[in-house]
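hey can u check if this looks right to u? its 498 residues, i copy pasted from the old doc so theres a chance i mangled smth
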Amino acid sequence: MRLPARLLPVAAVTAASALLTGCFAGAESSAGPSANGDGKRVRLAMMQPPRSGLSPLSDDAFKLSRWSTAETLVKLDADGDARPALATKWEQSGRSWTFEIRDGVTFHDGSELTAEAVVRSLTRAATASPKPRILDGVELTAKAEDGRVVVTTAAEDPLVPQRLSSPQLAVLAARAYAGKTVNPVGAGTGPFELTKVNGTSSATLDRYDGYWGGRAKSPGIDVKFVPDGTARAAALRSGEADIVEAVPVSQAAVLDQDLITEVPMPRTNTLYLNTEKGVFKDAGLRAAAREAVDAQSIVEGVYEGRADVAEGLLGPALPWAAGLRSPVRRAEPGDPSGRSVTIGTFTDRAELPEVAAALQQQLQKAGFRVKLEIREYATIESDALAGEFDAFVLSRATVLDSGDPAAYLYSDFGSDGSFNISQLAEKSVDAALDKASGAKAGAARRKAVIEAEAAVLATDAAVPMLHERVIQGDAAGVTGAAHDPRERELVTAATYVK
């Protein structure tokens, strides 16, 4: 039985603190005030270590973005609309978009940002294998023309600017592409230069005084990767970290409430069911699993009420979604008696093993025989994508890349989607996804997105359970840390420690 956070044994807290002892040692001398009177360096405890050597073509791109070291042509505002970044303006003509490149920008190695540099980065991403997921289903080419960048897609795409806001399409200096893999060290344009990476344990960034947007308030960032959630919370409690991302719900109650911020996330905790093989190839047994899930008890028992029960794949972070939904027709539940299934999930998000354990009990009560397989994400992702599990529990951001959920729906549920854990190949779903992907931004697109969500839900390939809220810890001396639902910003040029 799970102990309430406030009743955790002293030994557990002590052990967690021990994991952090010396965590930021070695940065101690640089953590103090800089010689010119600026704030101290920011000590940052992050949840997941790099999985792909910090390549921007992987999910590691979001670390580069959250450290304000790599930048994109476009950024998104709070409403998900495109705003200037390394590009100052753009216009569409059919399948092509022309972007004006900002003057006076230099990379961290001193080289100049040019249209040719932008084309090099976009071309590397567009021709990568696998592609960054923001380009799932998109054929994109880029060329330099009179100092501007012309981006052309195979089909007219109303979301090209939003796509180019994805951290996976960051623009880096030529040096980043010298080898077979993309190396972002010393190659960004942001207010902080990535100067050192120590495998999966730490990273160091120093202020880049030539930043086009103005000098950062902090002299640098010292990053430690701390997968253990209790240890991250202990780092905030002990003062060893200034900013802690993804504080586990189980730890939030024992922290000073003035030091934590809770933000509804466009992130859904979903049970993905394998539609290609095994027990859940049967639509009736998928329906039986869906009926067995009691999301409310998971919200109360695992998340201590710090989450929202899901009514669909898209949650309250997209407030327009609920008002557009209609009832979904689904298959009738079959008889699961004695059918054996394996549910996979990972340890990197502290709540997921508990969610899996709760699901095990709920499905067993319905008649299934359930085995759990729980590992670190780095060792389980490939098996999940290959369809090696009957079911998989995943916490998934729904507007991570473009600010538009159509990309997430295509990636996770399209026949050609790069993150199709459910192995779903359904013509009606593909047709709805194509319609949503091609719709113009605005009311028509939102309506098409909800229709695509309904098409997915009708298959029971995914059982959305809850929408998460992110809990971030900021020490008392931290000023200007970002609290970003999209998980793109964290330490910015305005962030410093008093």
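The domain at 265-468 is CATH 3.10.105.10 (Dipeptide-binding Protein; domain 3).
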